[in-house]
Amino acid sequence: MASSTDRPDRAPRAESGAARRPSAGPVRLRTGVWLRAVVLVVLAALTGCGAGNGTDARDDPAATGGTARANPSATAPAAGAPGAAGTAQGRPATEAPAVIPGLGPRTRAWIPATARQVVVVTGRDRDANRSQAVLYRHTGTGWQAGPVWPARNALRGWTDDHWAGDLRSPIGVYTLTDAGGLLPDPGTRLPYDRSDGFAVSGTGFEGEPLDGSFDYVVAIDYNRAPGTSPLDLTRPLGADRGGGIWLHVDHDGPTQGCVSLSEQHMRDLLLALDPALHPVVVMGDAASLRE
User: Fold this and answer.
1) Which of 94, 109, 130, 199 is the most exposed place for a label (fewest CB within 10 A)?
2) Bridge-partner residues for 170, per DSSP?
3) Whole-model pTM?
4) How many CB atoms lie within 10 A of CB 39?
5) What is d(CA 279, CA 236) in angstroms, rounded to the nearest whole number?
6) How many other C-beta atoms are found inside a 10 Å radius of the C-beta of residue 252?
7) Are 270 and 279 in contact (CB under 8 A)?
8) pLDDT tens column, 172-195
9) Which residues, other chains included, contact 174 with Cβ-Cβ below 8 Å and sequence gap of 6+?
């Protein structure tokens, strides 16, 4: 996100929204200037956008409480069945594609077989901090795309070896299990933590105000304990690997490591995500995601 600092541990939150339950956590962890004076009155302990610490693609996901990529071939989306009224390729012209466009075989293999909602955040190139996000839902025979939302990512772009303070967003596939924000729950089915701990002030990299950046937040399960508030500071791989990587409200400037969307699009995303569909985010520069 835009900026964050470490904060003391806080008491467990009260649950709201859907019933909380344990999650598989990060599915695929690929991770790796000083920040201009940015004053935050927010979670005094977050280093990514929301809280600090990440993981490396070469780390064992099991060590993070996540799920290892067992049997990758089983995670690739199944092709839709050809229909009699199909195209020359054996698929009706109106049928959703059998695979998500722009994702190569390796990236698709990282997506869990159970995932039926996939948020794809595609960076323009490795060093760019502008990107776009699309929410896909599996229809049973293919992937149906939602609208394209403008997005931002970290100041220096993307990395598959994320470290705290590198000002790059981690490339990978991660589960989405928990939400929260300064504003009341808009009606999401994800567990939602409404807390004053999401308050933030100060300015971002381009002098833009950070106020409201954490009005709505979805925690990306990157070096964190799934099934907890986005404010939780547990970092299975340690603070030096970064963390606190969130989807949050755009403040008109690049982030420290998070992905940001407009407030309306964050609200739309919160209303759309369904734990029963095992949502994940696939994020990275376009070339990396094509692998």
Assistant:
1) 94
2) 159
3) 0.74
4) 12
5) 21
6) 15
7) no
8) 999 999 999 999 999 999 999 999
9) 26, 27, 28, 29, 220, 221, 222, 245, 280, 281, 283
